[in-house]
Write a structure and sequence with these properties.
The structure is a single chain. This protein is 24% helix and 23% strand. The protein has 5 helices and 7 strands, in the order αβααβββαβαββ. A 7-stranded mixed β-sheet has the order 1-2-3-4-5-7-6, with helices on both faces.
């Protein structure tokens, strides 16, 4: 049986005309907790890696977004600073899922994991070995269920708040049914 709640959505690259909705969704999601970055910082994450920033659409239009960029493993962008490109190198083996917001009307449909799976596929195709993120507001339980390992020993910029947790997971190559030894690719070290 097909779930129409997820099949009527599509993921595409973020475009210039998406910014008003992206900025508004980010503000609604994070302003009350003091984690909102603002448009200039969000746009800088996109400029750093436009091929890893996505919008989710459904029949009613904008349903969410995901901003990701290559970033050194065990580090993350400071929410209070725009990305200058100095710390971002397209050749990084780690892809950092910086910001993911699902529109209020589209929540509860499993769209956040779907966006992350899309990012994982994109990361594998680009040769990234790991995917990282910073869990905020107690979301580490959700991310752990998707294979991310908490790394509480990794220091984070104060802009994330005291309860934030750095998390990472290896991006093993996707299993190939024709491969006699599925999963034989070396695992990236995140533990």
């Amino acid at each position: 049986m097909t779930d129409t709640a997820t099949t009527d959505t599509r993921i595409r690259l973020l475009r210039e005309e998406d910014w008003p909705e992206v900025i508004a969704a980010e503000e609604r999601a994070y302003a009350a907790s003091g984690l909102s970055e603002g448009g200039a910082a969000l746009r800088s994450r996109h400029r750093a890696s436009p091929s890893t920033c996505f919008v989710l659409e459904d029949a009613d239009g904008f349903a969410g977004y995901l901003l990701a960029l290559p970033y050194p493993l065990f580090r993350c962008p400071d929410l209070s600073l725009a990305s200058t490109g100095a710390a971002v190198r397209p050749t990084e083996s780690n892809l950092h899922a910086h910001d993911l917001v699902i529109a209020e009307r589209a929540r509860g449909r499993g769209l956040a994991p779907r966006l992350l799976r899309h990012l994982e596929e994109t990361g594998r195709a680009a040769g990234h070995r790991t995917l990282s993120l910073v869990a905020v507001r107690g979301s580490e339980v959700l991310w752990a269920g998707l294979g991310y390992r908490a790394r509480p020993e990794i220091g984070l910029p104060a802009s994330y708040g005291a309860a934030a947790v750095y998390m990472a997971k290896p991006l093993d190559r996707a299993p190939n049914p024709a491969d006699p030894t599925p999963g034989s690719a070396p695992r990236a070290e995140v533990g």
